[in-house]
Backbone:
């Protein structure tokens, strides 16, 4: 088994400990492997989608003043059927969008959102 050294901030360490306790794992390494497997399952599920997909995209992000999400929404506006923006505590925002598009378009949109590194939570729920 390979060894990887990573740096985590206090919030990430707390999240890792939460994962470890919630799943009854024996250590942080198991928690990291579990998180990697969960992310990989999301990727495989998305890759398996074909044709027109419809569902709800949920995003929690910080910094309302940062226009990155508005710019992405503008690029994909023809595929966003409905959207809701709500202000949450601690200057975070909730974006809920009903999406209808080709699977490849959705993959591109999700890739853009994830690559910004500014979303705290991203989940597509297929309808």
Residues:
């Amino acid at each position: 088994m390979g060894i990887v050294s990573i740096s985590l901030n206090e919030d990430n360490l707390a999240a890792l400990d939460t994962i470890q306790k919630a799943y009854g794992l024996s250590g942080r390494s198991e928690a990291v492997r579990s998180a990697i497997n969960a992310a990989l399952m999301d990727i495989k599920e998305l890759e398996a989608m074909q044709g027109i997909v419809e569902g709800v995209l949920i995003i929690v992000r910080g910094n309302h003043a940062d226009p990155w999400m508005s710019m992405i929404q503008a690029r994909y506006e023809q595929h966003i059927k409905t959207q809701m923006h709500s202000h949450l505590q601690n200057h975070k925002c909730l974006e809920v969008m009903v999406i209808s598009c080709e699977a490849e378009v959705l993959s591109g949109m999700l890739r853009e959102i994830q690559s910004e590194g500014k979303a705290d939570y991203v989940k597509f729920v297929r309808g």
Observations:
- Residues 50-126 form a domain with the Alpha-Beta Plaits fold (CATH 3.30.70.1150).
- Residues 62 and 71 are 15 Å apart (CA to CA).
- The mean pLDDT is 93.
- Residues 28-48 form the longest helix (21 residues).
